[in-house]
Every structure is written in C-alpha cells, then in structure tokens.
Design brief:
- It is a single chain.
- This protein is an all-alpha fold.
- The chain is built from three helices and no strands.
- It has helices at 18-28, 52-62, 91-111.
- It is flat.
Length: 118
C-alpha cells in the first residue's frame, strides 16, 4: 500500500472498481490544490433595536447600510465571495472562449465604417 488506497472494511462493498479509481487518479493528476480557508466568524452577536431611529444611528456609527432585507453584517465590512458559479475549465475550453471573443472583435471591426477603423 502507498497510503493513497482507501481503507478496506470487512463486509463493505467497494463503490468503484480498481480500474475506475486508477482512471480517476490519472484524470486528477496536476490539478490545482483547493484549500478552503476557515471563514467562520470569531463571534456572532444578536443586537436588538427598539426603534428605526436606533437602527439608523447604529448603521451610521459602523458606517454600513442596513436595509430591510439585511439579516447579518460583518464588522468591519467584508466582501463576501461567491464561488457557487465558478468552475475549473480546460486549457482548450479557455482557448475556445478567447477565440470566440477575438472573432467577435474582428467581426465588429470589419462591420465598422472605414473611417472608424484604426
């Protein structure tokens, strides 16, 4: 064993064949490492406001907008990353994107009046 093999459990049926595991490992070679940072807050605190004016004064004090749909904030204000719409693409897929963008620019240039081309 090299340490990469999963631990065998008596009576447990393998989900994947050895060939499938080998194929997957070949596919994942040289893939970038993903490191998930711990983004949990140090502490959370519930703050209650008796009036809208109290909320407005608090928002001014911390210099953040707190609209009617805001359920939580970070202090100091933090930019919240969105990763659900991201994915890895192959070099070939990226080249296809670049080619399409380049073709679009060339088409736009070709259809422009001659005095606007430079």
């Amino acid at each position: 064993m090299t340490g990469d093999e999963p631990e065998e459990v008596p009576g447990q049926v393998a989900m994947f064949s050895d060939a499938d595991v080998h194929k997957a490992r070949q596919h994942w070679k040289q893939m970038p490492e993903f490191v998930a940072e711990d983004l949990t807050p140090y502490r959370q605190l519930i703050v209650n406001f008796a009036t809208r004016a109290d909320l407005d004064r608090f928002a001014l004090a911390i210099e953040q907008a707190i609209g009617p749909k805001v359920r939580s904030i970070w202090y100091p204000e933090a930019e919240i990353g969105r990763f659900a719409d991201k994915r890895y693409i192959t070099v070939e897929e990226r080249q296809e994107q670049i080619d399409a963008q380049t073709q679009g620019l060339l088409d736009s240039w070709a259809s422009a009046p001659e005095e606007e081309r430079s």
